[in-house]
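Appendix C: a fully annotated inverse folding record. The material below is reproduced so that readers can follow the format used throughout the book. The structure is listed first as tokens, followed by the designed sequence.
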């Protein structure tokens, strides 16, 4: 997280809604940039590249809406620190896409469409 983003984050709850949405969007874009610059330990090259492609597509298509709905970087890009690709409970949405598109997004759920047309639901943990 950049210093400027961190300073903004410290006063997050006191900011007007539009500023909070902009900050979440910035933080999500920064998380994608961080992922582009550093492959997570325990993630193979091919899997990392697939996640980057999925992450870019998601941010381009859904980034603003995700921020507006309160999705944070960990909801999208998170991985378990010890078992990154084994702990689905700690995995962010983009790691589960595998090239499949998100077709709807709410504050608590993303719907992923498979190549057969079936849909999968990703439930975001909301505190």
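Designed amino acids, in order:
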């Amino acid at each position: 997280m950049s210093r400027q983003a961190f300073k903004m984050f410290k006063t997050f709850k006191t900011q007007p809604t539009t500023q909070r949405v902009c900050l979440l969007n910035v933080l999500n874009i920064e998380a994608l940039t961080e992922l582009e610059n550093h492959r997570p330990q325990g993630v193979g090259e091919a899997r990392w590249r697939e996640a980057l492609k999925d992450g870019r597509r998601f941010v381009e298509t859904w980034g603003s809406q995700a921020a507006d709905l309160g999705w944070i970087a960990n909801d999208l890009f998170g991985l378990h620190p010890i078992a990154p690709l084994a702990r689905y409970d700690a995995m962010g949405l983009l790691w589960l896409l595998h090239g499949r598109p998100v077709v709807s997004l709410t504050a608590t759920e993303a719907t992923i469409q498979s190549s057969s047309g079936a849909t999968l639901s990703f439930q975001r943990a909301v505190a």
